[in-house]
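Weekly modeling sync, notes
Attendees: S.R. (lead), two postdocs, one rotation student

Agenda item 3: backlog of single-chain predictions. S.R. asked that every request posted to the team notebook include the full sequence so nobody has to chase files. The rotation student volunteered to paste the first one in as an example of the format we agreed on. Action items at the bottom.

Example entry:
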Amino acid sequence: MTTVLCSIEEGTPLGELARTDPLPCCTLVACMALQLAGHDPDPATVKAYAKAEPGYWAPANVWSRDAPWSALTAARRLLGGRWAYERTVQDHAPVLTPGRWHIVQRWRGLDMGDDDGPGDDEVIDGATGHTYWAYMDAAGSVTIVQSSTARGLRIDAGVSWVGSAGLSGYAVGVLTLPPRVM
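Predicted structure, as returned to the notebook:
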């Protein structure tokens, strides 16, 4: 069984891809989710992952400006779970469930629409977002797995998820994955 961290270990096809090619955040999250869903393309290329589940790939990579939260909805369709939304984080970050993996998506500068929910949010010029994996252990310590084209793959253990957890001012969605997603 592939686990979240095993999917990107050094020496694994996806681990080598992520270490060699600084992937966009959503692309790393999408590739890892596909690994967990049983897709293991050989060779491991972005193009091969995109072909693995074509209907999943575009929303997982947030290609539509009208669907800024599509990475979470696509991951939910693929892996299950439930997601919560916070229009603007103030003093407290959205809750993470101890012992579970989460996919976190954050945005600054979205057009938030008229409703309080995420359904009418839209990416506008100047908006910035980021998507990443987060695991909270029983003691409340968090491991973050993320990537960017500027900094590549990063795995940060011992991150604090106290107060706003660095998310103050962001719109944030958190997909809590089912217990079977290790």
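Discussion: group reviewed the output briefly. The chain has a mean pLDDT of 96.
Action items: rotation student to repeat for the remaining queue; S.R. to check formatting next week.
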